[in-house]
Amino acid sequence: MARREAATKSFAVVLPDIERYESAISDRSLYDQLRHPNPNSALTLSKVLSRAMRAETERSVVICAIALKRFLLRYGKTPASLNSLVPVFVESVPVDYMDGKPMKYRMNSDGLFTLYSVGDDEKDDGGDPALQPGRSNLRNLWDRKDFVWPAAASTEEIEVYRNESAKK
Q1: What are φ and ψ of residue 156, in 5° steps?
Q2: How many Å apart are CA 96 and CA 127, to the nearest integer?
Q3: Which pTM value belongs to this model?
Q4: Residue 81 CB contacts under 8 Å (≥ 6 apart), including other chains
Q5: Cα angle 97-88-73, degrees, rounded to a multiple of 5
């Protein structure tokens, strides 16, 4: 599974295999339970593969962000698409390892951009940074609908942060 995940650069491709493996291992015979006593081995495998794909996705996002900044410094504007970065700033558009497709990017009406991965749910929510249902950790970017490259804080956000910090 790990080899296929690495070859396809997609966690989505091996997720059904992981689910089948987890199901099969939960229905183990007494002999298999004695032979492989760790009941969490399937869970551990899926977590390892998920963490690896998260790390690769984070790497791709950082590569894109650096290339976008270099493009901005050279041309004084952000590109219309990530394809504009090829081949001067990157060899090819970095891969979103969560779905195996190119990293997602769009220009916003305010002149800024949104750079994102589809995240753990493999569903493209258009770069929505809202928390997933049932999640509450605002600091964990993986708890959001999409894994979005953070934008610089606005003046208002900085002021709110300073006011909250002063209260503590």
Answers
A1: -65, -45
A2: 13
A3: 0.76
A4: 105
A5: 100
